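Tokens as discussed.
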């Protein structure tokens, strides 16, 4: 079964838009999960903060940031490879 060039166009760009949407949504979910500031607002609004509380906040920020970087970096590589495969296979 051969596909017309118009059908290939829609298949190619539909897949690319879907992959891009999934990548952006996964990064966005990770960014929205960065709502740690709401969790610690009562601690951060006080005039003094204990060392343990400060270390807990910093460690949690570091963990969320590492997760965001992992999702963004590996997601970009995976989505780029998938898009290149789509361009190669759907001609």
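Sequence:
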């Amino acid at each position: 079964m051969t596909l017309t060039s118009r059908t290939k166009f829609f298949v190619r760009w539909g897949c690319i838009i879907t992959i891009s949407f999934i990548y952006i949504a996964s990064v966005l979910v990770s960014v929205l999960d960065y709502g740690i500031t709401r969790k610690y607002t009562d601690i951060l609004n006080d005039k003094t903060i204990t060392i343990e509380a400060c270390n807990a906040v910093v460690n949690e920020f570091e963990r969320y940031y590492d997760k965001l970087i992992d999702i963004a970096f590996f997601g970009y590589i995976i989505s780029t490879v998938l898009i290149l495969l789509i361009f190669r296979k759907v001609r």
